[in-house]
C-alpha cells in the first residue's frame, strides 16, 4: 500500500503537559483524512510534527516515505500547508503575494490567476492584504497552499474564519484538488465539514485517538437500534428495531396512522460525544 | 542556491519595502546628514567617513534587522522556511536588498558631499567589508528579536555606540571610555575611511583594517551559530 503519511506511536510532551500519547494512523495517497477534536486536543501539534516544524518526543512519523524531521527543501516543494500561524505580506497586494510564492514553488504559469478564480478573489487581487477581511485573508492563505498542486496538503482548521458561502467554495476546491491526486490532511472541530469531505476521520481527545474510520462506517457502528414514528394524530413514538417494534409499526400502518418513519442515525458529532464523553468546539 | 528564488525574494522585498515607512525613514538619515555637512565648512574627509558609518549602521544594519524581525512577527518567515527555498536563498535575498539600499545611499551621499577620494579602490574594499559586517550584525539582531519593538530596543544602543562612537571618542580620547570606543567597529572603519580618502600609505591603517576584518569574521560566526541555534536553518 502506498501511504502519504505513516504515524506510529507518536507522543509529544511539553514540559509536564502530554500533548499527544501513542497516536498511530496511516493516510493513503489520494485520501482525505480528517483529524477531529476539540480545542487543545493536539491537532495543531500533530500538524506541526507531520510537517517537520516540531520534533516528536517519541514515535515514528513518515511523510511520503521519509521521516518528517528529515525533510529537505525539495520535499517541502511536494507539500502544502495552511495553519493558524501562516502569515502574508500585508503591505503587498494579493497578487504580489501569490506571484512571489508561485515563483518560490515554481508553480505553473497562469496558476495564480487560476487559484484566484477558485477562491473567488479575482476581483480583489489588486488590494493590499492589510485591507482584506479575515475570511478573505484565509482564502489567500488557501490559494497559496494549493498554488503548486501539492502531493500532500495540510489544513489546520481551514474554514474556521469563513462564512457558509465561502466554506462551500473551499470544499469544492478541495474536492477538485483531491480528484487530481492531492492527499489531504484536515483538522477541524466542525463535524459536518468532516462528514462531507473526509474519506476517513480520527477522533482526537486529550492527545489520544479514540476512534477512527470512514464516517459512514462509524454511523453504522454507532447506529441506534431505534426508529422514530410520526403519527397522524400529532404524536411521536420511538420503537425498537425488533419483533416488538415491528408489531407496533404493523398496527399503526394497519390503522393508517403513520405520517412518517425516521431512522435514528447519529451524526459524527453525536458519535464524538458518545466516544469521548465530551462535546466538540 | 537558486537564482530564480533569490530574484523572487528581491522582487518581493522591493514591493514590501517601498511602502515600509520605517525603512524609508532610516534611509533618509545619512542622506540628510550628507546634505547638512555639505553646507557646513568642516573637513569633508571627516564628513564623508561619518556619513559612511551612518549609512552602514542606519541603513544596512537597521533595514536588515527590521525586515527579518517583521517576517518573524508576521509569521511569514515560518512560511518561507516551509517552502522549497533554502535558508541560503532566503538570507541572501534579504541581505541583497539592504546592501542595494546602502549602496544607493552611499553613492548619493558621495555625490552630495563631493569629497576627493585619493584611493577609491581601498575605500571600496573597506566599505565592502563594512557592508558584510553590518549585514551580519543586522541579521543577528533580527534573529534575536521576536518582534519589531524588540529590534528597536537592541538597535538603539548598538547603533549609538557604533555610529556615534567615533564622534564621542574624539571628546574622550583619554581614559577608559575613549579606549573602549577605540575598539568598536565604527572607530576602525572611521580611521580606515579617513586614511583611504586621504591616500595615506597602507601601513598607516593596516591595523584598522585587520581589526575591521576581525570584527566581520566574529560577527559572521556568531550570526551563523545563532541562526543554527534558532533552528531557522533546515
Ligand atoms: N509550544 C507549546 N508549549 C507548551 N504546551 C503546548 C505548546 N503547544 C501546544 N501545547 C499544549 O498542547 C496541547 C495541544 O495543543 P494543540 O495541538 O494546539 O491543540 P489543538 O490544535 O487541537 O487546539 C494543549 O494543551 C496546549 O496547551
Ligand atoms: Mg489548533
From TrEMBL, chain A:
Provide the protein's localization. Cell membrane
Annotated SMART domains: AAA
Which keywords annotate this record?
Answer: ATP-binding, Cell membrane, Membrane, Nucleotide-binding, Translocase, Transport
Q: Which residues form the ABC transporter domain?
A: 5-231
Q: Which GO terms describe its cellular component?
A: plasma membrane
Q: Does the keyword ATP-binding apply?
A: yes
In Pfam terms, one family for this protein is ABC_tran
Repeat is among the record's keywords = no
What GO molecular function terms would the record report?
Answer: ATP binding; ATP hydrolysis activity
Protein name as annotated:
Bacitracin ABC transporter ATP-binding protein
TrEMBL record, chain B:
The protein here is known as ABC-2 type transporter transmembrane domain-containing protein
PANTHER family recorded for this chain?
A: ABC TRANSPORTER PERMEASE, ABC TRANSPORTER PERMEASE PROTEIN NOSY-RELATED
Its keywords, alphabetically, are: Membrane, Transmembrane, Transmembrane helix
**One Gene Ontology MF term:** ABC-type transporter activity
Query: How does it sit in the bilayer?
Result: Multi-pass membrane protein
Question: Where found in the cell?
Answer: Membrane
Transmembrane ranges? Answer: 21-40, 46-69, 90-113, 125-145, 152-172, 209-227
**Where does the signal sequence lie?**
none
Which intervals hold domain ABC-2 type transporter transmembrane?
31-224
A GO CC term assigned to this protein in UniProt = membrane
Its predominant location is membrane
Amino acid at each position: 500500500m502506498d501511504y502519504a503519511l505513516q504515524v506510529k506511536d507518536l507522543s509529544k510532551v511539553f514540559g509536564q503537559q502530554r500533548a499527544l500519547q501513542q497516536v498511530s494512523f496511516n493516510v493513503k495517497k489520494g485520501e482525505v483524512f480528517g483529524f477531529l477534536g476539540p480545542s487543545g486536543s493536539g491537532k495543531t501539534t500533530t500538524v506541526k510534527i507531520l510537517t517537520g516544524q516540531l520534533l516528536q518526543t517519541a514515535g515514528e512519523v513518515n511523510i511520503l516515505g521519509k521521516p518528517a524531521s528529515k525533510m529537505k527543501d525539495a520535499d517541502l516543494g511536494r507539500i502544502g500547508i495552511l495553519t493558524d500561524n501562516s502569515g502574508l505580506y500585508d503591505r503587498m497586494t494579493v497578487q504580489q503575494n501569490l506571484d512571489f510564492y508561485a515563483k518560490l514553488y515554481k508553480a505553473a504559469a497562469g496558476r495564480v490567476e487560476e487559484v484566484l478564480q477558485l477562491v473567488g478573489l479575482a476581483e480583489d487581487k489588486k488590494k493590499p492584504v492589510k485591507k482584506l477581511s479575515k475570511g478573505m485573508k484565509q482564502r489567500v492563505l488557501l490559494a497559496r497552499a494549493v498554488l503548486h498542486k501539492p502531493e500532500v496538503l495540510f489544513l489546520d482548521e481551514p474554514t474556521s474564519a469563513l462564512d457558509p458561502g465561502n466554506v462551500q467554495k473551499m470544499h469544492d476546491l478541495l474536492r477538485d484538488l483531491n480528484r487530481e491526486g492531492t492527499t489531504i490532511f484536515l483538522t477541524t472541530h466542525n463535524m459536518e465539514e468532516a462528514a462531507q469531505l473526509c474519506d476517513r476521520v480520527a477522533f482526537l481527545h486529550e492527545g489520544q485517538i479514540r476512534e477512527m474510520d470512514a464516517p459512514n462506517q462509524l454511523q453504522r457502528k454507532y447506529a441506534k437500534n431505534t426508529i422514530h414514528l410520526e403519527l397522524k394524530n400529532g404524536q411521536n413514538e420511538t420503537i425498537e428495531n425488533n419483533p416488538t417494534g415491528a408489531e407496533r409499526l404493523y398496527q399503526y400502518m394497519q390503522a393508517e396512522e403513520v405520517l412518517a418513519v425516521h431512522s435514528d442515525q447519529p451524526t459524527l458529532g453525536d458519535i464524538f460525544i458518545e466516544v469521548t464523553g465530551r462535546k466538540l468546539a | 542556491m537558486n537564482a530564480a528564488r533569490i530574484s523572487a525574494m528581491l522582487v518581493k522585498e522591493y514591493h514590501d519595502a517601498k511602502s515600509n515607512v520605517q525603512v524609508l525613514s532610516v534611509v533618509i538619515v545619512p542622506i540628510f546628514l550628507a546634505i547638512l555637512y555639505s553646507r557646513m565648512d568642516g573637513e569633508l574627509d571627516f564628513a564623508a567617513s561619518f556619513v559612511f558609518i551612518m549609512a552602514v549602521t542606519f541603513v544596512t544594519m537597521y533595514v536588515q534587522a527590521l525586515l527579518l524581525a517583521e517576517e518573524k512577527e508576521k509569521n511569514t518567515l515560518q512560511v518561507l522556511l516551509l517552502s522549497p527555498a533554502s535558508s541560503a536563498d532566503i538570507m541572501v535575498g534579504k541581505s541583497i536588498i539592504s546592501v542595494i539600499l546602502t549602496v544607493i545611499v552611499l553613492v548619493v551621499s558621495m555625490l552630495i558631499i563631493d569629497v576627493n577620494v585619493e584611493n577609491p579602490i581601498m575605500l571600496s574594499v573597506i566599505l565592502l567589508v563594512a557592508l558584510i559586517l553590518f549585514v551580519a550584525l543586522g541579521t543577528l539582531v533580527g534573529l534575536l528579536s521576536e518582534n519589531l519593538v524588540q529590534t528597536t530596543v537592541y538597535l538603539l544602543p548598538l547603533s549609538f555606540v557604533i555610529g556615534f562612537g567615533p564622534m564621542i571618542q574624539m571628546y574622550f580620547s583619554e581614559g577608559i571610555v575613549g579606549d573602549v570606543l577605540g575598539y568598536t567597529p565604527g572607530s576602525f572603519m572611521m580611521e580606515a575611511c579617513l586614511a583611504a580618502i586621504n591616500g595615506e600609505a597602507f601601513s598607516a591603517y593596516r591595523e584598522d583594517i585587520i581589526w575591521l576584518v576581525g570584527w566581520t569574521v566574529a560577527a559572521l560566526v556568531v550570526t551563523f551559530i545563532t541562526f543554527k541555534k534558532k533552528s531557522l536553518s533546515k
